[in-house]
Amino acid sequence: MKKLLLAGVAVLAFTHGAGARDITIAQSSDLRSANPGVNRDGNTDGIILHIVEGLVGYNNSGEVKPLLAKSFDMSADGLTYSFKLRTDVKFHNGKPLTAEDVVWNWTRYLKPDTKWSCLSDFAQGGAAHVTGVKATDASTVTITLEKPSAVFLGLMSRPECGYTGMISPDSVAADGSFVTPIGTGPFQWDEWKKGEYIHLKKFADYVSPENDGKPDGMVGSKRPLADGVKFMIIPDASTVKAGLESGVLDTAEISPDLIPEFKSSEKTQLIVSRNNGKNLFYIQTRDKVLSNPGVRRAMAMALDLDELVAAASNGTGEANGSMVSQDSVYFNDTQKKRLPYDVEAAKKELAAAGYKGEPISIIANKRGNVPSFPAAIMAQAMMQQAGLNVQIEVLDYATQVDRRRSGNYQVISQSVAPRLDPALMYAFYVGNKDKNASLMWDDPKAVELMRAAYVELDQEKRQKIFDEFHELMLKEMPGIFLYDMVDVWGATKKLKGMPVWQSNARLWEVSVEN
User: Fold this and answer.
1) What's the whole-model pTM score?
2) Are the C-beta atoms of 439 and 432 separated by less than 8 Å?
């Protein structure tokens, strides 16, 4: 193992010396595909984010703002969106972005042969069925929907969709096959040595969207301050740690148990950034014991949530019992409500529910970058104080996922990736469990509210929907939300800027001192 570690660092040292002004970053797995939104995973999304841009994108608070579009308008009936394109945008091959390019991209995405990950969202029966895309002049595009959709713009901005990124038609061959991503982002495609690294180089002609000089989600200031970015494929955590300490890596995600070490180190810095993902206890509401809301409420009241979160997150998290992120524009005083920590009240709830000490199993995994196991251990101890017979079953992550998808569990301690619109977050948990066993909550009122949030366009009315949803959740407790996910990264002291956003590497407005 020691020889392997030293060999890995030697390779890193060699590659770092070859491009001193690049930002060198480690990620755990290779790129799956350079084709935006096709054959993707989280690491792939993070690379594509630097290369392509969509008409719109999310800002820090989860609002959708113009990106390649200078502005956009919606018709009174909510069926037609008009996007006015910026005139200062160029593809990486030097050609200007036109309305016809946008039509070409959308036509390509909506073809089943493209195998776009988000086709079902925009096809017939999807949440935002697109019925037409038209260039009304050289810099204006209209997109027509079958019916109003409050999540249309948000869906366009999702990582899973490749951000609905615009690429030059030159990105594909004459037969329509994909060749290379020629986007509009701050960095452009350069080289991919499979299993070793992906290198992007600075796009010298890049122009940021209108901004206040600061990075803001996918929009805001997006200057490429480094000559390039090298994504090194390093699955071994000890090699990553050694690379950061030696300075041959500039930044990377690290295990939370390294927080004290990186915080006190003279060689490295600790970077902690909250995102919209969720850490929670996912409850099987059809289980014989847990189908009683009183038992579920008792479980929640038995938890000293602030203490649990502090321990499980190594002091980086803040308790949040809502499905809505604390950074969301929709997080208000109602969303801050949670059941009180009250062991005696929990005991009374259990008695009223007829609980007789039946065993309750929490499934956890021991992945180092999530709090699944430590959160389960803390919850077990706290719930036992209220008289709940809680046991822990440790499984590998893949098996845990299979159990959730099949509905074969009582409680699962898990983390869910960021979804910036609350309605999209709800959709991961709420719906018909007969059709999708992985869903957590099939209360008819909850389903009704989720569907209303998908179509309601007025922000104030959407807020009321989200607040009513949260109040209902506190009564039913289909799951226990602990805290928003936290990205924990290490970096050299020479790195300047914030290299992570919503669990993705984000390396514009980031530099490394020579």
Assistant:
1) 0.90
2) yes
